[in-house]
Amino acid sequence: MTLSKSILLNGTAIVFFAAILVFTGCDGRRPSGSPEGRTGGAGSSTGATVLQSWASNTVPLQIVARVHWRGTKDFNSVGIPAALLSIWELPETEELKNRAIRRIAGALAAELSNDPNDATNWVRIHRMVNDVLVHENYFQMGKGEDAWPYCAWAIRMDRERWITWKTNFADMLEPLHHDGQTVGVIGKLLVQMDYSNGWGVLGFSPQVNPLFQAFMSRFRSQSSSPYVWSTNYWLEIDTDVTHWPTAIKPPTAVQIPRIGVSIVAEGEELRVDAELNFATRLALSVSEWQVPTQLIDGSLSSFTAIRGLTNLLDRGSAWQRVTAERPPEQLFAWALRGLQMQTYMAAPLPDASNVVSRITEKVLSLEDPWGGTNELVGFQRSSQFQGFEWRGLPYLWPFLKTAEANGRAYMYAGTFPMGDVYPIAASTLDVLNPTNLLYYDWEMTSVRAEQWLYIGQFARLVTQKAQLPLDSTSVCWLKAAAPKLRNSLTLGTITGPSQLSFVRKSTLGLTGVELQLLCDWLESPAFPRGFHTMLAAPEPLK
Prior knowledge:
Layout: H1 3-20, E1 49-50, E2 62-69, H2 82-88, H3 91-112, H4 119-134, E3 137-143, E4 149-156, H5 159-172, E5 182-186, E6 189-196, E7 199-205, H6 210-221, E8 235-239, E9 258-266, E10 269-277, E11 300-307, H7 309-315, H8 317-322, E12 330-336, E13 343-348, H9 352-365, E14 378-381, E15 387-391, E16 399-405, E17 408-414, E18 437-444, H10 445-462, H11 473-481, E19 487-496, E20 499-506, H12 512-522, H13 532-535
Antiparallel strand pairs: 1-2, 2-3, 2-8, 3-4, 4-7, 5-6, 6-7, 8-9, 9-10, 10-20, 11-12, 11-18, 12-13, 13-17, 14-15, 15-16, 16-17, 18-19, 19-20
Helix pairs in contact: 1-3, 3-4, 3-11, 10-12
C-alpha cells in the first residue's frame, strides 16, 4: 500500500468518526474565557508548536496535528441533550453507523491486505474500526527535518483487546523484526506498538520515532486522559496544514490557516467552536450591513448574512471567469416556511445590472443537457425581467435578476418566484449589531433538512448528475432524524488581525445543507472517497 493511500484512508477514518460525532455529545462546561484564550489551543500560536509537555527539549519535531476523541463507550452515562440522544437511539442511526463502519473497514482491508478477498482481514479491521469509534483516542503528528510524518496514536482499552490489535497488525503488515515494539511497515513508515497503564500506543515514522517514545513515557507515569485544550470536549482537532510534512501535504495554492475545532454539549444543544489562524494579516473590508429588508418575507425558516467577501472573491478565479465587475462585499440568503422550494439570495451591487447581464450570457452559452431532448425544458432569457429563469419542470423555478430594495440595487436569485412580501421587522436585524460580526446563520434545521433534499435533487436533475436514492440508508436516516432537529445558530467573528472564530449551537453540529452533503458522501459508490452525486451513473434523460 502506498503512503498516500494509507494517509488518506486513515485520515478519512478520523474524519468519519468526527462525522459520527454529530450523533453524540458530552457532559462538561466550556472553560471560561473566549475561544482565543485557550491555553495551548489553536488561538495561542500561529505557527507549529514544539512538543513540550511529554518530551524532552531535544525532541526535533514540530507538532502539526492533534486530535482527541472521547469515544462512545460511556455514551449512555454522560449528560447529553435530549434531542441528540433521541436521534442516537433511532434504529436508522444504528443502521447508518454500522453500514459506514463496514464500508470503512472494507476500504482499509483492500489497501492493507495482500489478498483483497481475504475475509479474515475484513473481520479484523471491522472490529478495530469499531474500537476506534467506541474507545477514547489521542493522536499527534509531528514534522521532522525530513519530508515524512512522525505520528503517535493512543487508544484506551484493556490489555487483552490490545494484544489482539498487535497480533492483527503483525499479521496484516509486511513483517520487520527490529525490536519488541516494531511490528511491521506501511509503505516507508515503521509501525510500532506498545501498551501501558490502560493505553495502547501506535507509532508511524520513517525511522526512530521520538513522538512514540514520548507517548510511552507519558503513559508509563500516568493513566489520565490526554487532551488538546480540555478533557470536557468530546472532540478536539488542532492542525496546521501549512506545516505538514511535504510527503503528505496537499498540493494547493490557497493559504490554509491553522485550524482548531472543539465540540461539547452545552445545555440542550451541541456547541462547536472553530478558530482559523492565518499566517498573515487579514485584508478584510467590512462595511455596514445593507440588508434588503424589502425583499425578505418575515415567515423565515433560515437567514444568512455574510460580509467581507470582496477580498475573498477577488482572489478566486471563479468570479473573474464570469465577470470583470467588482464582486459583492455582502451576501444575504433566506428561506421561507411552508413551500419547500422557497429559497432566495441577494447581494448589493452598484452595477448589478451589468453583473446579471454577464452571468445570464454565461449561463445561456453553456451546453444544455436538456436541449437535445426537450425544447421546453431548460434555462431561458426572461421576457419579464432582466436575467434568466428556468422553464419546464414546475416544482422549482430558479431565476436570477436585478432588484431594487431599500434604495439600492441587488443581484437577486431564488428557486421559486416570490409573491407578496411582508417584510421582516427592523428589530429582527439587531442580531447583526456586533461590529466584528462577519457571518450570521440561523435556521430551523428540521425544515431546512427537508428543503435542501428537495433542492439538491432538482440541482442533480438539472446538471444531469445521479439522484441521491430516496430509499438509501442515509436518506432514510435523515428523514427519521429531521423532525427531532432543533434550530441552529452560527456566528463568525473577527477576533484578531489574523484570526477568525466561529461558534455554532445546534442539535447535531451540522446544518441542513451539511446534512445533505453528509448523506451524499456516505452513499458514495467509492466511499470513503467522493460523493454519490459525482461518482454514481445518472439515469439517461428521457
